Amino acid sequence: MKKRHAIGVAAVLFMAGVTILFGKRWAGAHVQRWTGRQDLGGVTCTHCHLQSIERMTWAKARAKHHSPAGIVVSPDGSKLFIACDDANEVVEADVRSLKVTRKLPLPGAPFGITIDAAGARLFVTCRASDRVVTVSTREFQQIDAVHVGDAPVAIAHTQTPAGERLVVANSLSDNISVLECSPLREIARPQGGREPFAVATSADGAIAFVANRLSTSEDVLAMPVSEMTMIEPAHGKLLWRHTLESAHLSEGIATLPGSTWSLMPFVKVRNLVPITQVANGWVMSSGLAIADRDGVRAELPLDEANDFFADPSGIVVDAAQQRAYIASGGGDVVSVIDLARITNWLAHADEATRLGAIRDLSLSADYVLARIATGRNPRQLALSPDGKMLFVTERLDDAVLVVDTATLKPAGRIVLGDGGLDDPIRRGERVFTSAAYTFQRQFSCRSCHPDGHVDGLAYDFDGDGIGDNMLDNRTLQGLAGTAPFKWNGKNATLEIQCGVRFARVLMRTDPIPPRELKDLAAFIEAQPPPRWERKRDQALTPPQERGKDIFFATSRPDGTPVPRERRCQTCHRPPLFTNRLPSEIGTRGARDSTNYFDTPHLLGIAHTAPYLHDGRAKTLEELWTIYQTNDLHGVTSYMNKHQLNDLVEYLKTL
Amino acid sequence: MKTKEMFRRGDASRSALGDRARSSPSPQPSPSGRGGNVRPPIADPARNASSQTALSFSLSPWGRAGVRGNGTWLLTTLGAFAVSLIGRTSLAAFVIAANLCIAADGPLPIIERFETFGAGDGIPADKVHVVFKTSQGVLWIGTWDGLCVRESNGKFRRFGPEHGLSHKMVTCIAEDKTTGDLWVGTMRGLNKMSGGRITKFLQTDSGLPNNVVYGVDVVDDTVWAATAAGTGAMNLKSGTWKMYDHNNSAMHEPWCYSIKGAKDVVYIGVWGSGILEHDPKTGSFKEYRDPDRDFHYDLVADDGPINDITSWVAWNDGILWQATYFGMSRYDGKSWKTWVQDKTPLPSNFTQFIWPVGNYAYIGHDQGASVTDGTNWVNYLIGTNGQGVVEIHRPSAPVEKRVTATSLANGFVLGIWADEREAWFATSKGLSRGVFSGTTRVANAAQGKVP
Amino acid sequence: MSHRVQRSAWVAGLLVLTLMLIGCERPLAPQALVVVQTSFTNTLPPRDLLDLRYPPGTRLVLMETTNAPPRFLSREFVAVGEPIVRPDGSAVLFSGKRSADSPWQIFELKLPRGKVQQLTSLPDGASHAAILGNGDLVFSSPVPKLAGTWSDARPSALFVQHGIEAPEQITFGSTPAVQPTVLRDGRILFVSARVTTTNTATPRLGLFTVNNDGTEVTPFAVNDDGVPFIDSPRELDDGRIAFLAASNVRMSDAWLEVVRPARPFLSRTNLSFEEWLAAGGVAPPDLDLDWHNAAAARIAPRTKPAGHLSAMVPAKRTGTLLCLDSTFSRSTVTEKAARTRRVRVLAGANARSLGEVAIEPDGSFQVEVPADTPIGFEALDAAGRVTVRLAPTFWVRPGENRSCVGCHEAYNTAPSNYRPIAATKPPVKFPVMRPVSENDHRLAEAHRFPLAPALSLGEREQLIPSLDLPERFGAAMRLGAILPLPWGEGWGEGVQRADQIGPGYILGRSKKILVQRKP
């Protein structure tokens, strides 16, 4: 009996051993057959199989918070209206009691908000549904709506000789919608820069100034420029598109009544200079651009020589007191600027001095009156009509801070939510947006990844030597499940990438503490690719269908088979469109230290330009027209222009 | 294929030889005409442009696929295009004043005198390919060496590749009246001049079918580009491109020379394929071809488009106009009317541009310019000694000839912009402005500001 | 089995006893101070600066409140000085010597129990303790000789020590690096002298910063914009940097000054004692007149300085330096710098030439130079003439990548955003030199300012009571200073004829004066 039992066990063990041995051999051969490579180790089935979108953190339901986005004060100063995009609500609060009085559920992520001169109608941009909605302030009900461009984030109301107008910044379609108010009707959609994000109009309604958040450049090593767009609200005609060199993250703009000035906070980014040091703003610093109708007149620093106030966002101007208030989302402060001193300084400075002033970090001591400490992530500002109260959205505290402008001290808070500290994603967002983890609080994760996305720039990290391996900034949206990270695939986890690695090569301070690092990773993994739900449910057009056939093609139209390792789907394997393995696609540059680069996922690829590891390709077309080498990046040499256009159209649907 | 090659030779010779023959009074024939040589002179920049174009084209894989190996067809065609950019000098002789009107549905404007603009006014090149005045009254010209805008001081300011223009050789201009953006076609790419910034669209970085852009127009939310390898349409809101060529439309050849938006449809002038009427809503195509299919002669008059070799197409107020190197045609929606030289007042079959105003149209050809309502004609020619010659053709009346002190800058007219008040002519030797009779207005200096 | 129970009982008992003892410890009062007091009975001549400032007999006293009896913490020490408190308030660090002959070392005294541990044991002594964010010790060694604080052939350098491990030198300049203090942003602020090529009798002192691994040494403040001598920098609670300033090396007319970090080079102003107190200064209460308070520190937790994760590569012996535009220069030398065509790289205190590198058309150059060695540059014009000279004064650590905007770059200036041509090419490499030797230091004398006049003390000391001193001296003393007394101002009745009296020193807050009577 015992003998038979032993034989049985031995047989089972033998069979298991044989299965494991041959299974392993077969798996190795399988990987080699599909990748054409012998040198890959540690490849598991999940690199190419057993993945599903539904399992991704960003595809799962998450807690919603009353994070204030846009705010506006009623003309009589009695009410404050707050758009809460995460909670899908517009909130009315009483300024005197600092209590929330009414709430209007408004789907589509209400983000930007403005009000007409009579205080009768609110106009709200819904970022997720691409709509502008009119809300009656008396009934607090939606009374009108219209579709605009993609992801509208900011809106301004103005009176022109041709009638009332709304100017809307469409952040994802890079254009500006000009609307008639009653009824809502789009009369023009002029082009903006990359990611229009803030709008302000001149007092006479003749000009609308639009701040664009991201910059673009002709070449990866060329100076990036962002744009301040000026349009005529009456008819929506483009007047001027002024450029700001090396400027990005412009998320606020204001005009100065009685003056031709527009004021735009921005981040002066220095991505072309090797990041050999962080001190003295070698990576980036905050500034204030002063422009008039003829262009940018001055760029002034908002930071100090030994202290920085990262991620400037909202700005409001008090013309009577000649003051500007600027929120620093990364520094958790509001800076108070003396405009009279700036005017005086400008009067004595020549053009070169005015435009170069941003480099002198000790200059701000001349005109920064105060730094008001706020709660987490102050982003948008509003002033009471009499200028006595300043309202500051504390986005990650779910509150609005009220500041007495006479004393520049906090005078109370409007509480919208509990701050969501029991939610690791919300805690992670606090880490993500805070500059407290970088040397002298110079920048935050968000400074390069607004909304967890890209800034469209390439940087030279000096960890591997000055000038070597210039790297394009990759999006964090849709990153969950795509480990390893970084273009060289060095970082096995987000904790390594965002912790020790960045502390060493970028933050130049202590690594983010483990608990906060875990929250940060939770937040990053919860960032979905842009509009993935909408794209998932959208039927493909005929060109997109043809492009899909090309993407998944196993042979050329003439029947010639495409080698497995050169098929799009082999490396960009659905559903995440990556096999998470390094690939050689013939893009090694003169200063690159490897032929192999991590295979990026393609979710939201249409919005992540530029492309390739060093950002050399400005558009998707250039991947195969200029930077294709010997059909290494997929077999495309047979394509005509129809086929290339179709392929690009399909990629835009991912 | 053989017929076409024969035609190509014939056409090229015709464009050059005809140039010489019909311009024989000119004391110095154009070099390109000598010996009927179809090849333009080495020094001719237009030829350089054509060779550049051929090069950029041959580098593009889909371009090769697009023309199915017809490289020589392209080269010869572009050679002809380049040759067509060559012009001659003219000199004013003496002045007479006239103030004429002739019967028509509306009076045809008569140009009393011409003002000429050249290097002294800041125009960087002799060859002005296109002239365009925006709805805001800003005058732009496209030259062999850059895009120019007329400043408030009357001088022209140049924009070239150093300002972001994709290529110095500008071929066509259109305006997006909604936003005021200007769309500029060049020999290497399409450009958007918007708020003082230029954005490029190339075949390598966008859905543009081909870098050689001959015609451009903006219709509602779509910019249309007629290129050497098909027509492209970009939706200005979504940035999505559509492309039509011989692979997916009624086009028999990919050479699209002009494009014009009409009511609900778009007309595409195709070299060798007549005129295509495209309905963007349904995606349908309707073709208008020369019924007699004869390249050299219009066997049957008024039977349809005069020739399949369309050099320009224009539309206004329900009337479609076609220019070819073998005469011109008009279609009012019901019937066609054709004109050829010798048999009609049309001075030359070599017509290359038409600009309609109301129910009449200006025609640019290799002898000067003409204006007609279909019945009456006024031809602006250049006399033996360079003086201006005005021919007025009335039905059943002798031709009235007048000599004017001033003339077009050159008889080779490549582009025209006109309204009821003035007319501008882009020629091979500078820019001309026609001042209508009954007025002494000079060009309004205040028209100069860039949008 | 019973034996096991018995042992367990013993262990439990000991555990309970320990817990009781710990539980019995009374926490210190929130306003507790640790004060260094000096007596006037000592007759030994000082050998170095610390002997002078903290003569034998100096003691460390814990004062919980003004009324509470003081606790004497340094009975086994001949002299103590320079007390600082760890950011968590758990211990006091101070310089001390256990015997008159032994060198000064750094000691740690755990609070509240008062257990003392010696942290350093360097033959030439250690002084000026400071604490990094990670708890590591920063100090200066050797202790400056009395005769040559700013002119020792072997200048003092800063060291970082983890626990009681061997200290690592982090500064390698050719001038002394002393009196470190750690800023809240994690940098070490210290006093040093700029190397000058002109023969001046006065060192050009300034405040400099360096990371905790010795990288990114950078001028911070006080450079040629005021009287030269500065001492005892401290970061105040409001972020300003206070320090003592004086017009001569004897600090005989020292007063308090302060700079704002927002504009360190342009905001130098006087600081009154009241301002200093309001900004977080420490004012120890008066004790009996036989002792005076030479220095004090508050025993309370404070904001822990940030850290800095080192990007050094210890295995390397070189670092890389990228200059964005060597033709750029601030103010006076701009025109000369614009003529720069080549750059000569100097290394070592003796400014030995490593070779030359041609600059790129945009003025940039990139070189790989020896680490942990003073580095300097000479900008050369087309004819090979030196247009701008930076004597060897800064250094790079192994594997450090360092950049500068230009020669003599303007302070607190961010670079323009462009790709320097030199960054698109590999760096020009220079041979690694041998470590800096004593000989280098001797040779360096030629490049350093002449010796400052030495302080010589008499054989005996005499205490002159009750002088009416200006408040600025009082304020200075609260920073732990010992001020040479300017004679000839006719203070007080007790002052004897100057020809009978040598240099004098005002000691402590008790407004007493210590003079050396001439033999």
Explain what the structure shows.
The complex is a heterotrimer of chains A (654), B (451) and C (519). With 654 residues, chain A is of the alpha+beta class. Helix content of chain A is 19%, strand content 30%. In chain A, strands 17, 18, 19, 20 and 21 form a five-stranded antiparallel β-sheet that branches. A four-stranded antiparallel β-sheet of chain A has the order 1-2-3-4, with no helix packed on it. Chain A has a four-stranded antiparallel β-sheet with strand order 5-6-7-8, with no helix packed on it. In chain A, helix 6 crosses helix 7 (514-525) and helix 9 (542-551) packs across helix 12 (641-651). Chain A is globular, with a radius of gyration of 27 Å. The mean pLDDT of chain A is 94. Chain B has helices at residues 2-22, 45-58, 61-67, 71-83; strands spanning 111-117, 128-133, 139-143, 146-150, 156-159, 170-175, 182-186, 189-194, 197-201, 213-219, 222-227, 230-235, 241-244, 256-261, 266-270, 274-279, 284-288, 310-316, 319-324, 327-331, 336-339, 351-357, 360-365, 368-372, 377-382, 388-393, 400-404, 413-418, 422-427, 430-436. By secondary structure, chain B is mainly β. In chain B, strand 6 and strand 7 form a beta hairpin. A six-stranded antiparallel β-sheet of chain B has the order 22-23-24-25-26-27, with no helix packed on it. Chain B has a four-stranded antiparallel β-sheet with strand order 1-30-29-28, with no helix packed on it. A four-stranded antiparallel β-sheet of chain B has the order 2-3-4-5, with no helix packed on it. Chain B has four helices and 30 strands. Helices cover 12% and strands 38% of the residues of chain B. Chain C has 519 residues and is mainly beta. Chain C has six helices and 32 strands. Chain C has helices at residues 2-24, 49-53, 273-278, 334-338, 438-444, 471-478; strands spanning 33-38, 59-63, 71-72, 79-85, 91-97, 105-110, 116-118, 127-131, 137-141, 157-161, 168-169, 177-182, 188-194, 204-210, 218-221, 229-235, 241-246, 255-259, 269-270, 292-298, 318-329, 342-347, 352-358, 365-370, 375-380, 386-394, 401-407, 428-429, 460-464, 482-485, 501-507, 512-517. Mean pLDDT of chain C is 77; it is low at 433-519. The chains are: A alpha+beta (654), B mainly beta (451), C mainly beta (519). Chains in contact: A-B, A-C.
Strand order of the largest sheet of chain B: 22-23-24-25-26-27
> What structural class do you assign from the helix and strand content of chain B?
mainly beta
Helix tally of chain A equals 12
Shape of chain A: globular
Strand segment tally of chain B = 30
Mean of residue pLDDT values of chain B? 78
> Gyration radius of chain B, to the nearest Å?
20 Å
What is the beta-strand fraction of chain A? Answer: 25-35%
Count of distinct strands of chain A: 33
Q: Identify the biggest protein-protein contact and residues per side.
A: A-C, 48 and 46 residues
Compute the number of helices of chain B.
4
How much helical structure, as a percent, in the residues of chain A? 10-25%
For the terminal residues of chain A, how far apart are their CA atoms?
62 Å
Low-confidence stretches of chain B: 1-105, 439-451
Structural class of the secondary structure composition of chain A? Answer: alpha+beta
Distance between the termini of chain B: 47 Å
Main sheet of chain A?
A: 5 strands, antiparallel
Helicity of chain B, as a percent range? 10-25%
